[in-house]
Amino acid sequence: MLDKYIRETGAKWMEGEGPHHNIVLSSRIRLARNFREVPFPSLAGDEETEQVINSVQESLKRGESGLGRPKTIKMKDLSSIDKQVMVEKHLISPLLAKEDRNSAVILSQDEDISIMLNEEDHIRIQCLFPGLQLEKAFEMADHIDDLIEESVDYAFDEELGFMTACPTNVGTGMRASVMLHLPALAITGQINRILSAVGQVGLAVRGLYGEGSEVVGNIFQISNQITLGQSEQDMIENLLGVTKQIVEQEEQARKKLEEDSELKVADKAGRSFGQLSYARIVTTKEALDLLSQVRLGVDMGLLKEVDATILDDLMVLIRPANLQKIAGKELESGERDTKRAEIIQKRINMNTDKQE
Amino acid sequence: MLDKYIRETGAKWMEGEGPHHNIVLSSRIRLARNFREVPFPSLAGDEETEQVINSVQESLKRGESGLGRPKTIKMKDLSSIDKQVMVEKHLISPLLAKEDRNSAVILSQDEDISIMLNEEDHIRIQCLFPGLQLEKAFEMADHIDDLIEESVDYAFDEELGFMTACPTNVGTGMRASVMLHLPALAITGQINRILSAVGQVGLAVRGLYGEGSEVVGNIFQISNQITLGQSEQDMIENLLGVTKQIVEQEEQARKKLEEDSELKVADKAGRSFGQLSYARIVTTKEALDLLSQVRLGVDMGLLKEVDATILDDLMVLIRPANLQKIAGKELESGERDTKRAEIIQKRINMNTDKQE
């Protein structure tokens, strides 16, 4: 049963492969849109927010949405753990899980597209693809946006563009981001220089879990800061160009490690794998840091015991809400550290069993 | 071939069981004796030292020595690595390996008795038994001493006792020592208090590799300091009494760990085992520290992957000369760290293969 959960719970959008998937874990496009005639969600009444949900649902039925067989989930129907599970899978935002509003999410069959309703804005279309696929993600988001716009009157200003609840989103209403795994740049000490350069070209760097989150497991999110005065295509091209440069630098750093200190990398990857295999108490941060070393070892062909997707799978599974979902009950912090160690070992054994 | 070496090289005296073997790794008695009519080895000529070797060999043939089929090995016939291998197995002293003298060792068939000839003194009888067996070791050493004395005129003074090259051994010429593994006392922080108390009752505390050696792997040697003014039986009783007290305190500390922090101990043991299983570079000190945690986990029933003798076996096998003997060539320090990791994994796999 647990095996089944582990197999099925790993965020679906991460299962596929994608270009540069050894370094770019995922690409995300998010569009913020609002109804012209309805107050922003924080000011709207239940009837108005319900109208938003219904209108969007209806509009998606009028064409080929690309959502497969979508399901609409109302936040008020979910337990707080179930909401948090979705946050950890990056399917909804922490805000949507937190606010006690008449809000909902429409999920595509593959869970690669999620349309949040009555979050900060009425509509937030999110497309999340594995690897470096910003353009494809934008095409998909753009297509859904067009479909909704056929029947919904968006709040749009000729000069400013799309109006949003928060001024930082006004304009295109678009946030494009990539999630990068950069262990070699961290080991060679080049990461800080590169990240500060990224900041200079109008892009923001964040940790795995968004704004204000600590960097763990050498995982970085890079996204556009500016939503005004640039076309979506220009923004995506900018982010894409910077990402490709970082990917190349990470690849060069890995090549350098291979030449100069392959044994050290293998040693660290092996020890990290060994610890994950037999530890009994593991915090999230430590797990991600160890998984990062394991993943680097696998990527560099120095560790054969597991496959590369162990990082992708576990970075979701070991989060508090997912752990509690698996346990079927609330867990104290200490209990979570024990459960986490157990789940990690389950996942590792699924790999080693397969090999035998 | 390597497996065979690993199986056979582990010091034989450690293979057996003995009382309190989970805490007392070994018990050792050493008697220093000299010929009355021959100058101390540092002053003796080759003819005289040769006479010492022959006399002792002959005297051992005159009765039931308890050595089985002993072999006499002359130091000058050994390579420097072979000598060092014997030092690491505690079969000869570092001094015997170092001095360029006409010296030799007579080893019992089981390698639990070694009689060094022309070390600092003419004769050093050493008995090394697993577990807490000081009395048995003394009986054996005493028996051999008697046998030699039947045909050799010892340097003996009615007032002082046996004369030795170094004044610190004059009197009984006896050094009795035990090698203890005290991880729980180290974890609970009681170790320093206990060791300083040990110092107060005329006993000396040393690390695994004798005088001046750093404490690694929570392994301590405790021995008598005084050789004068006390009978052998009194000295042994004193050391035995203190050892039993320490064993009891270690057992209590383990019980306390079991009650208060079993999971933490299991976690540390597991992580240590995991690191030893997959590391690619390991120093001696780190290996012994990790093995100490593994052994504690096994002793407490918290780690099933290996058996307890892994510490006993590996504390010898991972030493520099043994590693080089296994490799069949000289190794630089860095190469030894890699070879060490390899040997440790071999030894672990011998365990896990057996389980399957």
From TrEMBL, chains A, B:
Catalytic activity of the protein: L-arginyl-[protein] + ATP = N(omega)-phospho-L-arginyl-[protein] + ADP + H(+)
Record motif RDXXRA motif of the pArg binding pocket involved in allosteric regulation, residues: 336-341
Main enzyme class: transferase
Gene3D superfamilies referenced in this protein's UniProt entry, alphabetically: Glutamine synthetase/guanido kinase, catalytic domain
Regions annotated as coiled coil: 240-267
Native organism taxonomy: Bacteria, Bacillati, Bacillota, Clostridia, Natranaerobiales
GO molecular function: ATP binding; creatine kinase activity; protein arginine kinase activity
Keyword ATP-binding: yes
Protein name: Protein-arginine kinase
One GO cellular component term noted in the UniProt record for this chain: extracellular space
NCBIfam families documented for this protein: PRK01059.1-4
Keywords per UniProt: Allosteric enzyme, ATP-binding, Coiled coil, Kinase, Nucleotide-binding, Transferase
Family, per entry: Belongs to the ATP:guanido phosphotransferase family.
Known regulation of activity: Appears to be allosterically activated by the binding of pArg-containing polypeptides to the pArg-binding pocket localized in the C-terminal domain of McsB.
EC code(s) of this entry: 2.7.14.1
Role: Catalyzes the specific phosphorylation of arginine residues in proteins.
Matching Pfam families: ATP-gua_Ptrans
Phosphagen kinase C-terminal domain mapped to chain residues: 23-253
Organism: Natranaerobius thermophilus (strain ATCC BAA-1301 / DSM 18059 / JW/NM-WN-LF)
Biological process, per Gene Ontology: phosphocreatine biosynthetic process
Residues binding ATP, per UniProt: 26-30, 90, 124, 175-179, 206-211
